[in-house]
Amino acid sequence: MLGPALALIHTGQAPTRSALTTALDVTRATAGAVTGELEALGLITVDSRPAGGGRGRPSHRLAIDPAGPVVVAAQIHADGLSVALSGLGGRLDTPRYLPLPDGTDPVRMLRAVAEAGAALARASARRCLGVALALPNPVTEPDGTALAALHFAWPSGTPVADLFDQEVRRADFGPRARTPLPSAVANDANLAALAEHRHGAGRGARHLLLVTSGHRGVGGALVIDGRLHTGSAGLALEVGHLTVDPLGRPCACGNRGCLNAETDPEALFTAAHRIPDPAGPLLGQARLLARSAAGDAAAAAAVEHVVDRLGLGLAGLVNILNPDRIVLSGLHLDLLAAAPERLAAVVADRCLWGRSGRVPIVPAQVDHAGLAGAAELAWEPYLHDPQAVLAGRS
User: Fold this and answer.
1) pTM (predicted TM-score)
2) Within a 10 A sphere around the Cβ of 25, how many other Cβ atoms?
């Protein structure tokens, strides 16, 4: 009962004890006992002044304890690292961005991530309960090996979960951290979808498809009834390697015309016949280019070209997966804003059900969704068993 209750409060579905009573289908006394236990664990607060003013008995307000524990969320991008602390409730502190280390072999990169996260944990007065990492490549389940790490040329089958766990154990997360500190790794698009489903544009969707383009490449994920669909080994929804133009740009995977190569930031610059500033983040520059389409003919033509390729890919995914909502993030969010009707029309024209079966295509709402999803991954054991916060006290 504690786990489901905490999950409802964490996702904002139970802002009051009355709402929690209804959601859990329990008595008020039981809901009161459950919230009392979660409050005693330092995870939530129960307002002593009941909310009300309408009909019926006023209800106590429930909130995440702002002084409660945190987890470290981390993400490796194609051109840098980011780390942040996160409490329950989807509350992500301001991320810290770092350049890639001089060597991009797995151990050096994972060590840099662990040490950056440890520095944040040591500087915080709140207890750290775990750390999770979002990676821009497939991660197998349950063994946690990285496959096709094309951005860094890591050997296929790198045991990234084990290596990251070793670096987390080596790093000093401070006297308040749980010992040993649990760690986890997963694909960044999967984690972004999880964050959007729990805290953003995917709330309430039963079959949520997320497609995103980060600094390079394209990722996708599917959430079905609140659970990530990761396939038999964690490798499902590699949408970036869906072919949308057989004669298109070469992809790092060896094929041509993949969604990965046709709708990412590099593709937009190529279509606009522009060269990005090598000193600046590629994604940010591409987003600015997409936003300039209203007053820049070359940018507008590039947006239309890339949107057409993105629409072809989305239509194929709709035909196979039949989602009830599509969330676009990263550069794709700006492409949607620049040409919403064009994108919807391409998808509808290529969809088996045509315009009558149009699927809502909406912009992502969660900032730093990969990091926010990594936080969700780190919190997962505690959402299942809140009593686990008592373990590993130093």
Assistant:
1) 0.91
2) 7
